[in-house]
Structures are given as structure tokens and as C-alpha cells.
Input
Amino acid sequence: MDRAKDGFVKDRSTSAAVRALLALFAVVLLAFAPARAQTTHIAPRLVAESVAPQPGGATTVALAMTPEKGWHGYWSNGGDAGFGMQVEWNAPPGVTVGAFRYPVPEALTLFGLMNHVYEHPYALLADVRVDKSVAPGTDLTLTGIANWLACTDKICVPEKAVISVAMKAGSGAIAPGAQQQFDAWRAKLPQPLDRAGAWERRGAMVRFGIPLPEGTTLDVPHLFLETQGVIDYPAPQSFSRNGDWIIVEARAKGDAAGPIQGLLKLSDGRGLSVHFEPEAVRLAGEPIAAASRSIDMALFWTALGGAIIGGLILNLMPCVFPILSLKALSLARSGGDARDAKIEAVAYTAGAVLTALLLGGALLALRAAGEQVGWAFQLQHPVSVFVLMLLAVAITLNLAGVYELPSFGGGQTLASQGGAAGGFWTGALAAFVATPCSGPLLGAALGATLVLPAWAALPIFGGLGLGLALPFLAVGFVPALRNRLPRPGPWMAKFRKWMAWPMALTALGLGWLLWRQTGSVTHGWLLLFIMLLYIAEMLRRWRLGRISRNATLMLVVFAIAFFGFKAWDQFAMPVAPTAEAAAETFSPDALAKARATGKPVFVYFTADWCLSCKANEAGAINRAAVQEAFDKAGVATLVGDWTNGDPAITRALAEHGRNSVPLYLWYAPGKAEAEILPQILTPRLLTDKAGAI
Output
């Protein structure tokens, strides 16, 4: 027994000696590495998000590293035998460079040693601040000498290179391509955990407590420690859950004390940066290592139920009502025939569910690619809004009786017609238009897709489409409901024309949204395009004998007078949008400054295509009584406009478990966390919040 123990101690001593020798060997090689330019196995490239940073502001630079096949670089704490990036900056006067932020690494064990590495292209991000005293136009070219370690599974080579990026003090503008690239790099950074964890040493073990809500997916988790001298890196780590805490236990190594910085790797390459304070840690709970690829089924079923009920509630939202009018006409036209009603109900459900699944799948794919997007991303692009507006105009004219829609594939007709194809396209259109409206229960349900794996998140999106289709599915399969529908008759023609009005309002709303997204010049060209289409349709109807020459001339003159002069006014208007007077624009810096005043802060995230957002703003936020209460209490209001998409807003939504708008946050003085307010606001709710201060 003693001999076995002695052998174990000897093995550990030998392993420790090998690690020390390897680390010393790497440092010696680095010290004697030539300073001249050389071919590197990991190619560095310094990139600036804005090449014209504004004096008094900041920009971000990225040191993009591209390893050759079989080579890898290192995290800030390289592990047993590596080290991170070291840069000696040569910054111009008035320019300061912050510390690098590293993406989530991988754990690589070779010869009994664990390294924290990157085996694929990665980027380190650092903030660059420019003093306000720097004059515009000043050359701010940033250079530095970078040193890093490049390794394979057999050899390690210290590498060195001169890195540089040309910048000049300017407006702070960011090119669209640069913003997309930096957003993709930021998506790979660990997200900061809003609460501190705890750590303690008990004998030969070190225990960590991480506050993490139940349901968060852990796919082969691993705890990386930036602070050295705490744990034995290659030793196994055990994970368990005790309520809302993850308990991690690992073998101790070293004599570190005080606060510790760490990174908890989650599923799909995501991670959380955690600050640990030395204090007592909860007891270990249920082991989660064996179920690391499973999910919290309670969270899944709750989110799925919320999505179905939320989709059902969407049928009452104003953005869905014009589409429901199409379905009402189709069901009335069927005359209560059971077979036709069932076919159309199933087709309608299939269209709604499939569209919701496609939108959800696209959202998950874009997030996996590093894009900072959220629910309703399709309405953040003017092309999508333009196509949807043309479709709304076409349906409006069809309902008004101007023309019949042409056939669509195999002689089947579009959304306003009956049959399986008509039901399918109506359901698809309803889901496409309705899903941007985030009603009760829906925001939390969609927010759960942020922490669930893709295979579990997709059914939640499908549940939204199912909830949206439930009323018509019930009518199709429940005879008692179907028998209550009115019988076909002459009233249908009049009802059809009346239903053209809500669809026309939808088209106008989409046109207004397009103007808000593209500016006045683009909107002017759009009006000219609509005018030409209108004139062409009038001329076609005159040639077919459906309208007299005088009436045609009158309508053409009307189109030129109305649309033409309106387009001219749009061309003459300034393109720059006007800012909101009652609120400041949301940004993380603006929020930090507002909270530093010690006053209450109200933050609301909105979008021009979100009708429930606009209803809350008109009915509650912008009411005179609410604004007076806010002024009296000194409430600072910040608004995040998500109309055209904004990565900063997307990240803020994700931090609060949301990927859709509206979201309303109330920061009370002295409290660290925000209170999430209901998605349906009332003036009384807001005035009570302000009066309680």
C-alpha cells in the first residue's frame, strides 16, 4: 500500500517536473526568438471596426489569428504549457488600448498536460479610446509588436510579428461589412454573468458555485480559470446542480487566494465569464455530467405551452386581423361543407406551422453564424418589407374587386381563394405577418430558445404557428363551431369589400415602415413606381372596355397629381431621421451613465413594425400623466429602436432572456438588477412606479 502511494506521488512529481520544464523551454525559446519579420504558423491581422474613430469616443480593434492546419494558439491562461497574446503597443498621443477579450477556448490534453487553445481562426478584441483633445484628421495609426506561442501536438514555436492598422480621427462611422464582421467576433466572446460566483478550498479539492438558472443547457461543460495557481488543469471536473446554482469540484493545485476570474463553457461554443468571490459554496446536488446532452424538460414543455397560447392570443392582435378576414371569407364560401373545411383547416395549419419553423430555423442559423439577430428579423430588412407591402396591396385590390388574383402553381389560387393551396398560403401569410407581434407569454417562450439546443428550440417555433392556427383548426374539425358560421349569400360580396379596408391599412402601415427604414428618397422612388403601376392598370382596364375614356383620364390625372406631388415632396425632404425628444437613445454606455445618477431609469425596446409596441407607447408611455410623473421623479428614459436591427439591442434582449420586442425594463435606484415590466403597459402601472421612488 505504501509502495503504491509512493509511486503515485512520484508520478505526480515527475508530471509536474515535465510541465515546468516545458513551460521554461517555451519561455527560453521566446527570449531568443529573432525580432526580425518571419514566417508565422499563425497569421496575425490587426483590424479596426472604425478607421475614423471620433475624438472623445472609442472603437474596437481585433487581432485576427489564422492558424495553419494542425497548429493552435492559446487563451489568456494557456494551461499547463502555454501562454496567451502579449503585445507591446506603440500608440499615438491621446490613444489608449484596453486589455484583450478572448473568445471561448477549447480544452486540449496532450501527454497528460491540458492546454486552453484555439485550433481554428479566432480574434482577440480590445477597446481603443481616443482623447477628446485629439484634432479631427489626426493620424492615429496604431502599431505594436505581438508575441504568441504556436504549437502542434509535437512542437511549439514562439512567434513574433509587427501588427498595424491605419486610423484617422473622424466621425466614428463604421462600414456595414466591418460591423457584421465584428458582430460575428463578439458573438464568440463569453457573456458576463450578472452575479458573482463563490469559491472555496476544502482539503485537496476546490469547489466553485455558479448562479445559473435551471434549464440552461450544459453540453460537456468545462470551467476555465483565468487566475493561475488554483486547480490541477487535467484533473476531472465534476458538475452538479443545487437549485439555481451549478457546483463545480476540481483537484486543487497552488495557493491562490482572493477573487478569481473564470469562464464556464456552455453548449454550442458559448460561454459565461464569472467573477468568483472567496466564500462558502453550497453542497453538491444532482450530477449533471451524465445528462450533459439533455435538457430541462420542464423548461421545454413550459416554453412550448407558452408559445402555443401566445400564438393563440396573436389572433386578437391588430396585426393579424386583416389576414383573418381572408380566412373568414374562405370558410363562409365553403358553406359548411365538412370535407372542404377540414382540408382547408389542415392546409392553413400547415402553412402557419411551416412558416414559423422556417423563420425560427433561419433565426437559429443566423445566430449560429455569429449574427446578432432576434425574432422578427425579416421585417428589419427593407426588401422584405417592400415585398410584403406589394402583397398587401395586391390582396387589398383583390378584396376590393379590382381584379382576380392569377393562378399559383398547378391552377391553384393564392391566399384569398379556397382549397388546400389557398388555406396553406393564407396560413403562411398570417404567420409571416403575425409573428413579429410579441404578445403575453410569447416573449418568455421565445426567449427560452436562447438557452435550448436547436433541436429543442425548433418545436417551440412550430408551437407558435400551431397556436396561431388553432381557431381555424377547431372550426374545421368541430361541427358545432362550423355550423355557427353564416351561410353563403349576397352578403359575402359586400363583406369582402369591407374587409379590403383593414388590408389597405396594413399596406399603408408597411409603406410607412419602409419610409422609416429607407429614407425619403427611396420612398419617393417607391411612390413613383406605384403611380406607374396604377396608370398601367387604368389603361389596361380602358382597353378592355371596363372603364370609359373620360374616367380613365380623370383617374390618371388624379394619380399624377397625388402620387407625383407626394413623391416630389419626399425627394425634397431631408434624409436624416429626427430623434425622439422625450427619450435618449439606448446604448450600454448611456444606460451606465443614467444609472450612475442615482435616479430611476426606464428602458423600452421597440420597433416601427411592432404594433403592440406602438399601442403601448401611445396608450401608456407617451401619456401626459405618465410623462409628468416621470419628470417629477427624475426618471431617465432610454429607447432602443430595433426597426432596422441593432446588435447592441439584440444582446441586451438576450441578456434578459428575450429575442423579441417589446421589452420594458425598470431600474430602481440602489438595485443591481432590472425589473421586467409586463408586455401590456397601463398608465397606472408607470405612474405607480415613478411615485414609489
